[in-house]
Write a structure and sequence with these properties.
It contains six helices and no strands. With about 140 residues, it is mainly α.
Length: about 140
């Protein structure tokens, strides 16, 4: 669920980019899997949030694009070493490919669906204006 915050980089910029990256370090230290996860997970979040920020004028596209680094780096890069790959529609995929598809799809839901809806709600209800004027 924390990955839905990546979409907020479209509105709040670099503080969110660095915040979701540092938050990922802390979360990965708390729910420790491997030092690889502590290093590569935050790199994936940094790239994802940077893409969202760079494409902020087309926020939905940015959110969709931001899901792919997470799927490729986390799913295809290393997570399949630690967990059994999911069954993807009965296809007989290699472990790294199945995990890449699974993590990419879940990141699309988190960032491009939930995150984008959160972003739109913050904009629509004027929450962003309240946060920016109070800080």
């Amino acid at each position: 669920m924390a990955d839905c915050l990546i979409a907020l980089a479209a509105l709040f910029g670099w503080p969110v980019v660095f915040g979701v990256s540092l938050g990922c370090v802390l979360a990965n230290l708390y729910a420790f899997i491997s030092p690889i996860d502590v290093v590569l997970g935050p790199i994936a979040n940094f790239i994802a949030a940077t893409l969202v920020f760079m494409l902020r004028k087309r926020a939905l596209l940015g959110c969709v694009a931001g899901a792919f680094p997470i799927g490729l780096i986390v799913g295809g890069g290393y997570l399949w070493w630690f967990f059994a790959p999911p069954d993807i529609f009965g296809l007989n995929l290699p472990a790294w490919a199945a995990m890449t598809v699974s993590i990419t799809l879940s990141s699309l839901v988190a960032v491009a669906v939930i995150g984008y809806l959160l972003l739109q709600a913050i904009i629509r209800f004027g929450i962003a204006k309240m946060v920016k004027t109070e800080s």
